[in-house]
């Protein structure tokens, strides 16, 4: 398998960075502990964020994946690369439609 776009390195870097950031920042203030540092019996519920912006962000990512995933074939001019790019686009559509 060839990692055209370096996704292994990109996702490993993001994952390790997120792990260290979560460890440094700790849990949300006021969610699991009170002001004195005592553990709450049940986590405090935070109000939900904008659902419209969540949907908009999802669609922006989805459209971006159409440029990135088929574009990761590094070109369409050599023989067979157009087929690979088309398969990448179909896979992207199926993954987004199925929630994977």
List keywords for this structure.
100 residues, mainly alpha, 0% strand, elongated
Give an overview of the whole structure.
With 100 residues, the protein is mainly alpha-helical. The protein contains three helices and no strands. Helix 2 runs antiparallel to helix 3. The mean pLDDT is 84.
Main pleated sheet? none
* Series of secondary-structure elements, N-terminal to C-terminal: HHH
Using the alpha-carbon principal axes, give the shape: elongated
Secondary structure: helix percent: 55-70%
Gyration radius, in Å: 20 Å
Task: Tell me what portion of residues adopts beta-strand conformation.
Answer: under 5%
Instruction: For the record, give the distance between the C-alpha atoms at the N and C termini, rounded to a whole number.
Output: 21 Å
Total number of helical segments? 3
Low-pLDDT runs of 5+ residues are none
> Pairing-aware structural class of the strands and helices?
mainly alpha
Instruction: Report mean pLDDT, rounded to a whole number.
Output: 84
The number of strands is: 0
Give the arrangement of secondary structure elements.
Elements: H1 7-25, H2 51-71, H3 81-98
Give a nutshell description of this structure.
The chain is mainly alpha-helical and 100 residues long. Helices cover 58% and strands 0% of the residues.
